[in-house]
Amino acid sequence: MATRSRRRTAWQGRAALLPVLLAGALSLAACGGGTSTTPSQGGQSGPAAKTLVVDASFTLKTADPGRNYEPTGLIIGKALYDTLLTFEGSDVTKPVPSLAESYEQSEDGKTLTLKLRQGATFSDGSPVTADDVVFSLNRVRDMKGNPSFLLDGVEVAKTDESTVTLTSKIANPALPFILPNPALGIVNSKVVKQNGGTEDESDKAENFLNGTSAGSGPYQLESFNAQSQVVLTANPKYWGPKKPTYTKVVLRNVESATQKLNVQRGDSQVALDLSGDQIKTVGADYTTVKTASANVVFLLANRDPAVSKVTDNPKVVEAIRKGVDYQGLLELAGEGSVQAPGVIPTMLLGALPADQAVQRDVEGAKAALAASGVSNPTVKLEYPSDLTLQGLSFQPFAERIQANLKEVGITVELTPAPVATALDNYRNGKEELGLWYWGPDYPDPTDYLVFLPGKTVGLRAGWKAGADKELEALGDKAATTIGDDARKPLYADIQARLNADSPFIPLIQPSQNIVTAPSVTGLQFHPVWTVDVAALGAK
Q: Which N-terminal residues, if any, form the signal peptide (predicted)?
């Protein structure tokens, strides 16, 4: 993202999302012969089934954990590389031990001490050591890949053979919530160094890690193709208490409509990207997860007068904010979607309650437009034309917003562009009005301070440092405050101020719809890595 090493975009955002959607289902020939499913079984398979086929719309570039920061990549990274801390199931309120058996954060929030678990091993049988931890985390931070921002300002040191200390220059209450991110998976430092790995930008281990994994996770990498499919095989030397049920997991790049057909006819057992309408007709025998996703769709109204003489006027933005029909957008998004009350999604600490969400007020919007002094304004709304989010296209939402604002007296010209073009304009702060989304880099409200003046997304909206000094000071305080009880009201205050006067208009959180065949158990949605394939079982 703009001012940091972060490359992930706000439209997930997990941020850059450049999906390659296949026109049809991929052949199962590459899946191996271990699956005992038939179309007549509706995807059911008996306890002897060993292959799990997962269909997803790929957003994938690499299998190297130090460079991996796309949603599909995080699914893969979670399976291949254990992290120091993790989360239990779908609960993101408390990090729990993984490779670290315990952790303790200092009262000032600057030091995090982790005691390493004894007996954890990499897939080659060698032990996971403090040296591996230090190398892995320093490599992510210093080779400046997509996820390097996660450890900005954090020093990693080996205290003794079983203890690692992370020290931040300022209080960093989010650090325990950051460490579970699969990008911070621990690699076998000896193996990675032997194959070009370093702790700086000269690192050349990516090609090696795209061909084989060097982690301690429940799975190993068998094959990797960022455009078509990735095959994982169970790690026979996995150290964890629960061995994976499936000996092979095949992730295939398949468009949303075909995902539904595949899971219904038994060609796959998991479909990750169905829309709210698609999931209604899957069938009662299938296990479904229907919940609001962690992705917040929002409008960006540029405050830079060099970009727009219209949206730089706060009263015009107020008219847009009051003119949008949020309930109408929810109808388009389908069952399970919710209105975003603020930039922080509803499942995270600091989220605003639903009753504080902005409501449509057409007369108030017209009054704000009149007070702006701008007559019959025209604005260009840009959005990615070839991107889907939870199976949804941006086009219907843009058209609905266009119709909503016409009622207020604002003419909206739709300017869809291929995602690469739209993304460049968005990142470079050139969009007058933009339609994007943001998903969590990690499940903590500090990740949303990027919407403030002078921060990553704020700058993309032409909102420079000093534009709202009181809000900026509040953000600085929230970033370093320790304790959830003290943090929660600070983030609520920040979002209330953003809703009252900022370049950003939170719209909706689309539903996250995942389907598994009747034979698959243990399905839980996670806002960072979507699904933990190693936690899936079989009847």
A: 1-29
